[in-house]
Give the backbone structure.
Amino acid sequence: MTTPGPLADEPTQQTDLDYPLLDATHPLNGSVGRSAPLIAAALRRPVAHTPVWFMRQAGRSLPEYRKVREGVPMLESCFRTDLVTEITLQPVRRYGVDAAIFFSDIVVPLKAIGVNLDIAPGVGPVVAEPFRRETDVARLRALDEADVLPITAAVRDLVVELGPTPLIGFAGAPFTLASYLIEGGPSRDHAQTKALMYGQPAVWHALLGALADIAGQYLRLQVLAGASAVQLFDSWVGALAPRDYREYVMPHSTRALSHVADLRVPRIHFGVGTGELLADMRDVGTDVVGVDFRVPLSEAARRVGPNHSVQGNLDPAILFADIETVETQVRRVLDDARGLPGHIFNLGHGVLPATNPDVLARVVELVHENEQHAQP
Ligand code: CP3
C-alpha cells in the first residue's frame, strides 16, 4: 500500500523548494528550473540541445515590433506593461528561441528614479545634464519597488505567457551606465568617463557604488517577479585595460551581482571587446561569461575554466551574408563549442536593425538540429 503524501509538484514547506527564497510559483521552482535548456546549460547540466537566444532579439529588426511601436517613444514603451509584454513575446513566438529577454533598456531604472534622460532614435541614451562632479552623485537615489511597478507587472504577466520558456532579466553594469551619465550620450573613446575615473577616483567610486545598488536592486526585483536568469551588460567596459578594470570596475560589478546571489539565479555577464577581461568578469559572481565574436569560444572557455559556461558568439554581421555562409558560420561556432561543459548559443553582440528575421529563424533551427552538440 502506498502512503498518501504530498504530490511531487507541491512542496509542503518553503524549504522543499529548489530555490527556497523564490515563491513556490516562480518558474525556477517549476518546469523552467527542472527542464529549460538555458538553465541547464548555465549550470553545466546535461541538455537535449544547445539553447539559443539573441541579444536584442526583442525589437529592432521585427516588423511586428515596428508596428506596435508606431508613435510610441522608446522610453514610454518601456513603462507600458502591455507593450513590454507583447514585444518580449514577439521573438519567442516567431523564432522558438530558448529564452525571452525582457524588453527594456539599461537606462530604464535611471529614468525610474528621476534622472532626466531620453533614448533618441538611432542614437541611444542621451542625458540632459551629464554627471561630472561630486555633487552629481547626489542626483542618484536608491531604486524602490514602487518606481518600477509597470515593469514588474510585465514580468508577472510574461512568465504566465511563457510557461516553460525562461525569461532573462537584465541591467546595465555600473561602468556602462556611468559612461552614458558622464558622457551625456554614446561615446567612442569614453574620454570624459576615463578623465573622471583617473582624475577624481573618489567621485568615480561613489558614482559606481550608487549605480551598482540601482542595477542590483533592479535585477532583484525582476527575479522576484519571475525572471529565471539575469544578464548584466557591461557593453563598453572593453575600453579598459585589465588592471584598471580590477581597480575601478570590478568591486562595483561584484556589488551589483551580489544583490541576487542569495536567490541562486543563473547570472550571465557580457561585454564587447572584453577578451582580455574574461577571467576578471567571471570573478564578479558570474555563472555564464558572454563572449563577443573576437575570441573563439574554445579559447574563451580556456580563459574562464571548467566551472563556468560560455555564451556566444556569432558575429551579427554574418547574418547579412548568403544563407549557405550563415549556415557554415553557425556550424563553426557549434564546432568550436563542442565538448564544453556549458554553452548557450548567441550572437557576439546585439541583432543589427536591418537583419532579416528569416535568417535568425534559420539559425535557431540549425542550432536545435545539432543534437550531437548536446552538452555532457
Ligand atoms: O535584447 C533585447 O532584445 C531586449 C531589449 C534591449 C534594449 N536595449 C532595447 C532597445 C536591451 C537588452 C538593451 C540593452 C542596452 N541598451 C545596452 C546593452 C546591450 C548592448 O547592446 O550592448 C546598451 C548599451 C543600451 C543603450 C542603447 N539603447 C543603445 C546603444 C541603443 C541603440 C540606439 C539605436 O537606435 O541604434 C538603445 C536604444 C534601444 N534599446 C532600442 C531598443 C529596441 C532601439 C530603440 C527604438 O527601436 O526606437
